[in-house]
Amino acid sequence: MWPQLARFATLLLASALILSGCASRAPAVNPDASVQPEARDYRIGPGDTLNIIVWRNPEVSLVVPVRPDGKFSTPLVEDIEASGKTATVLAREIEKSLAKFIQDPVVTVVVTNFVGTYSEQIRVIGQAAKPQALPYRKEMSLLDVIIAVGGTTEFAAGNKANVIRNVDGQQKRIAVRLDDLMKDGDISANMTMRPGDILVIPESIF
């Protein structure tokens, strides 16, 4: 009887070890992790509108547009480069410039009209109802982009569309199924967009 109990105890111990090993196994890794959005702060671009607030100095607080050359001017400081910078970085630079005229200036920059840098805009070309460049927004999806451009034209070959993406300095072409997504409601055809993506919608060949 004792040998049987010993064998039973051994089996129980082996089962526990197997279950423990399964529980500690690493979770599966997304094989297409390269398409996941990157966490990043918003970068100011030409066409953005900036609300510059100088604490206790309303006479130099103002709302200004960022010019096509990426710069803007204030009453005390001219031609400040804004393009490609975050609001926080720009605020610190304005403080340094204003320190020549104001003692210990405290500046806050609020972006009120988002366009973004050209390199991060999402461009839609081809048979879109309204081909255009769109400002990238966090967690923006292919469906969001299609809605923003008003869908496709009647001549579009939606299931032959492609997203051109820069990956490690190389252009990668990703096939997308716009017809399945928009006409059939196939959410599996949706995907996450990344800054700088180009959506190309070809014309259908009859």
What would your notes on this structure say?
This protein is an alpha+beta fold and 206 residues long. 22% of the residues lie in helices and 23% in strands. The chain has helices spanning 2-23, 87-98, 142-148, 178-182, and strands spanning 49-54, 62-65, 71-72, 80-81, 107-113, 122-126, 132-134, 161-167, 170-176, 198-201. The strands form three sheets. It has a five-stranded mixed β-sheet, with no helix packed on it. Strands 2-1-5 form a three-stranded antiparallel β-sheet, with helices on one face. It has a two-stranded antiparallel sheet with strand order 3-4. The chain is elongated and about 70 Å long. The N and C termini lie far apart (83 Å). Mean pLDDT is 85; it is low at 1-6 and 8-37.
Outline the fold blueprint:
Layout: H1 2-23, E1 49-54, E2 62-65, E3 71-72, E4 80-81, H2 87-98, E5 107-113, E6 122-126, E7 132-134, H3 142-148, E8 161-167, E9 170-176, H4 178-182, E10 198-201
Parallel strand pairs: 6-10
Antiparallel strand pairs: 1-2, 1-5, 3-4, 6-7, 8-9, 8-10
